[in-house]
Write a structure and sequence with these properties.
By secondary structure, this protein is an alpha/beta fold. It has six helices and six strands; from the N terminus they run E-H-E-E-H-H-H-E-H-E-E-H. It has one domain: Roll (CBS-domain), CATH 3.10.580.10. Helix content is about 35%, strand content about 15%.
């Protein structure tokens, strides 16, 4: 069974010059279950990823949290500082915040390759790229659990031919860019 058969085919993507305020809107959307927003260039080539953790780190930096925790800042002072940080950074381009160290997998890879990377790197999702580095999908822990659920319901699922392109419909709830 290949990753192309189980991957989400439309992961959330954004251009590197998009302001980080758009990502806050995206992650605040109640229907959003994705934790990753992939940064792609004009040709769709994966150049990075931004997660909720990077956003929280930018707008709620550890030193601010620590200052409140140790009593150096009151709640009103924290709120004032958060507002200042939001105003200062809301227009920063995503490229300033993105990580570039996320491992990738190919659509033609065996599905266990994704599990090894997910576990080994401690991430919840992996971008799927083609030979030119173009983002073509995403495989997540949730997708692998969905695969297990489908196999429980239909034990013959593993007998699918290698050329079967998509095992079940997966899609993201929202799309930026």
């Amino acid at each position: 069974m290949r990753i192309e058969q189980i991957m989400r085919h439309d992961p959330t993507r954004v251009g590197p010059d998009e302001p980080v305020s758009r990502l806050i809107e995206w992650y605040a959307n109640p229907g959003n279950r994705s934790r990753y927003t992939y940064v792609v260039d004009k040709d769709g080539v994966l150049v990075g990823v931004v997660t909720m953790l990077e956003l929280l780190g930018l707008f709620l930096p550890p030193e601010l949290v620590d200052s409140h925790e140790n009593g150096a800042l009151s709640e009103p002072e924290v709120i004032h500082k958060v507002k200042d940080i939001l105003q200062t950074n809301k227009s920063r381009p995503v490229r300033d915040l993105m990580r570039t160290d996320l491992p990738t997998v190919r659509a033609s890879s065996f599905f266990l390759d994704a599990r090894l990377l997910l576990r080994g790197r401690g991430v919840t999702a992996l971008p799927v790229v083609d030979g030119a580095g173009v983002l073509v999908g995403e495989v997540t822990r949730r997708v692998l659990i969905r695969l297990l659920d489908n196999i429980l319901r239909d034990p013959d699922l593993f007998e699918l031919k290698k050329d079967s392109k998509q095992l079940f419909e997966t899609s993201s709830e929202f799309f930026i860019g």
